[in-house]
Amino acid sequence: MLRAAPDLGKLYVLVKAKDKAAAMNRLKNEIMDEDLFGCLKDMHGKSYYNFMMDKLVPVLGNVCEDDLGMDPDTTTRLAGEIDVILNSAAFTTFDGSWVWGVKNIIPLCLTHSSSIYCVVGWSKYGNTDHLTYVAGQTEGVSFEKALTMGQSTSPSISAPLVDVDAEIKLASEWNKSLQDGNRKAKKMRDLGIERAKIHGWSNSYEFTKAMGEMQIGRMTGKVPTVIVRPSIIESTYSEPFPGWIQGNRMFEPVILSYGQGHLPCFVGEANTIMDIVPVDMVVNAILAAVAKHGITAKPELHVYNVTSSVENPVALIELWEHFHDHFTLSPLLDSRGKTIRVPPPIFFTELHSFSAYLREKIVGKNGLQENLLAIDPKSLSQIQRECNKIVMRSTYLAEIYKDYVCGKVRFDSGNTRKLLQNMSTQEKMDFGFDIGNINWRHYFVDLHIPSIRRRILKEPFISSPVAASRI
Fold first, then answer.
1. Rounded to the nearest 5°, which phi and psi values hold at 460?
2. What is the reported pTM?
3. Which domains does the chain have, with CATH numbers?
4. What angle do helix axes 182-198 and 164-177 make, rounded to 10 degrees?
5. EC class of this enzyme (predicted)?
6. Which of 180, 206, 307, 308 has the fewest CB neighbours in a 10 Å radius?
């Protein structure tokens, strides 16, 4: 927004911090100094920080508290100044925080009824972002329909209807009754998983997001509301530059483990359609949806799936072949400077089969089967510990991703396609999100993997391995 629409007024950023100085510090360290804004720095030069300080206003608060943790004067002032509220949050613990966050924002929207409320179904901190919170454990095609208060995942699953208020009350009572510490965190996680599975979801992450969306239905007919649901979010395709993403999550741990020779196989159905979207296309779709419904200002609820599984599907086996192509053309080096050769993709549908094969390959790779007598006991023990560490980490990754690489649901994006089609040529150039035009091989081989190697492994810039192979 700051780059493409510099004439906008203010962007108020709700920041959780101990005081205003700490909030300003977070704004500077986590936003202004981020390399994502390099283009803005180039545009504004020495006046960059002045420009950002003029546009960005940190607001001390907390979405989990009444009135978002803001003082009454701030709440009144913001209600009269804001035109759009963007809410993006999720929690992996079952303490009701995400649901309370949605519930606490609703009064602010209703106070200033001309504002548009946009909820984004993603989490900055999650390992995998996916729309399973909408579909639960169902199969087939999931359409762009809002979850309604009280429903379970699907009529085909025998699960009790969700009473959101009762679930929040239960979580709050447990949270208050337990003493702080590791046991409390574990008990809350266990409770979340139990409650989620009762209603047809896999975990508390999905369940709390679903309940949050159900809460939004209470605003229907009162405030223009948009729900944007992205699937697994990966690095930028083009804007502001290709390959940017924050942190080390989504598929990055899997990709790097494979390239480092630690993941000769993986768990999953080879033909499972993966649903992946570049983050810049998600952002552009959000801006387009907000602009469209902000202009009309009709108090309606609209849902947009920013997804690829119907529009531009890529199977797990294809994804792995792209990983294989990249590391074959541009391999990583081991600690001795030797080339790491990656095997073609092999998949197992059961975790125990995956772990057994993985252990056999890792042990064989380190020569433990043939050379047991030739290795001194101290070195042998060290190698065994390293092998166990690799197997445990890889099994952990497989457990995290198994729901996403064995799923049988696809997410329709008809509303999102119509949104794009209704944009002008110039708007598409400035805020395009045509997921159907993504070349997945180019994206992963030439853009995404080189970027994560530079960012996480601190490698210097390398040119496209595909382009290099043609020279």
1. -70, 165
2. 0.85
3. 61-247+275-311+410-439 (3.40.50)
4. 160
5. oxidoreductase
6. 180
